[in-house]
Amino acid sequence: MLGNFLACSRRFTLLIAIACGSFLAAQTAISAEPRNSGALPQVPAPKLVPVALDPRDGDRIVLLGDGLFEREQQDGYLETALTASWPEKKLAFRNLGWSGDTPLGEARAGFGSSENTRSWQPPQQRDPDYGFKKLLQQVREAKPTVVFVAYGSAAAYDEPADRERFPNSLKRLAKELAADKVRLVLVTPTPHERLNPAQPDPKPRNERLAAVAEQIRKIAAEQGYPVLDLYTGLSPAPVEPLKEPSQPRPYASPPLTENGMHLGSDGYRRVAWAAREQLALPTGRWNLDVSVAEMKVAGQDGTQCKNITKTEYGVQFDVSDERLPALDAPEASHRVLRVTNLPRGQYALTVDGQRVAMAGADQWATGVGLTKGPEFAQTETLRAAIIEKNRLYFQYFRPQNEAYIFLFRRHERGDHASEIAQWAKLVERQEEEIARLRTPHPHHYELIREKDYPESWVPSAVADTDPEAERRSFTLADGMEINLFASEPMISNPININFDERGRMWVATSTTYPHLEAGMKPNDGGRGSRRAGR
């Protein structure tokens, strides 16, 4: 399979990555956190004692905070982890994150109540508590029973004297929410990382963030609130700092941030995993041990196996899982299937007819980690449904052109206010789909010995392609540049490439080439070609 398509040109392109440090970031930005050299203050990390979250059936969980939560709705890993951990419970989530916000709701203040008129003149007096009142109103309209409170990033940039106001403002917010009999979980800000030597040393910022995180831990200990300590949970082990721009990053795993500050997808995966560990979410372990000699289950954890049957080429059985596999789990936590007493040979594992692994009989007897299959696909579909629900709720919670609909220009377009309620109905409909997806489906497993056609064997684990690594591997003449314009999954399984008279590249693809595997359905639909670029 051709991994990537690259195009060459004679022009030089200056790519400038601008990492916006402003806490008034646009809604499409993504959150931050660190993961690198000795940029973190060398202080003993607090011992994290897991505190079980244990939600109740019917709980409404609000994610309240600054850009950390606003951007989380675009990745959905935390909400997916919480949803899939209790498939038997009906949990609803509302994301009220707001970039640049503080416990006093300063970023939510908007125009202020005095400007909610037809006048274009600035108000003579502004209610200093307007943002805080608006924050409380938004939370109460969401009718939560549990609130995750994630503030502190903005406080880390205050002057020392102003920074001391943060604990009091957080206590004030917690007191108001607790008065509504809401259970609270306090969340610390994430650390920053240095992705290359051109970026400033994040150590001074991390020292401030560490101090704010300690203030949050202290408040939680005084009030008896659980803590999701992301500053500690996402902080890396110290390593040697980068010396040259071309030097590879001194850690094996990918960076957690996009720009040193704002978390990317890998960062939000780590947030979800930190929540699993610190909030004692139900174990995601999945282990199944099947004995072919005795045709019985020798051990199982996280799943139920039945209907074990020998076949002409191996063995088959049915599996019903307790919960969906975690998308955020590290390699060591993958599902492990062990099948003993198989005759010698190579065996392919299919789940509902989809091949997911290949190993020898001795490897199956030891245990093979499963990292893909219909179960994983269902979790990813659940995450996509959650992201869509968050998009719909964002349009309801923060509609575009609010000034026209509700504020000082509502006399022009205020009739649109009645349409906003329709977004809430779309959210409810999407939650029905989430409820359907969070429950695991039963699956049919089959181990098939590939003895008739040994040359058909392929490795069970093929490394994912890395477009950037491939681009860097090219040796180019002076004045030439190579850019990536398409890669998987935009184009997959290409079977032909050609150029037309206008210099456009056309790529023919086929999802079923070179042949249909058992159980597959052809789905090319006559759309085998697409224009990839020029």
Question: What attributes does this structure have?
Answer:
single chain, 534 residues, alpha/beta, five-stranded parallel beta sheet, five-stranded antiparallel beta sheet, 14 helices, 28% helix, globular, disordered N terminus, disordered C terminus
Secondary-structure blueprint:
Elements: E1 4-9, E2 60-65, H1 67-72, H2 77-85, E3 92-97, H3 130-141, E4 146-150, H4 160-163, H5 165-179, E5 183-187, H6 203-223, E6 227-228, H7 230-233, H8 265-278, E7 287-291, E8 296-301, E9 303-310, E10 314-321, E11 335-340, E12 346-351, E13 354-360, H9 361-366, E14 368-370, H10 374-397, H11 402-405, H12 410-413, H13 417-437, E15 443-449, H14 467-472, E16 481-487, E17 494-499, E18 505-509, E19 529-533
Parallel strand pairs: 2-3, 2-4, 4-5, 5-6, 7-11
Antiparallel strand pairs: 1-16, 7-8, 9-10, 10-15, 11-14, 12-13, 12-15, 17-18, 18-19
Distance between the termini: 21 Å
Oligomeric nature of the chains:
single chain
Sum up the overall morphology in one term: globular
Largest sheet: 5 strands, parallel
Rounded average pLDDT: 80
- In helices, the fraction of residues equals 25-40%
> What is the percentage of strand-forming residues?
15-25%
Summary of the model, kept short:
The chain is α/β, with parallel strands linked by helices and 534 residues long.
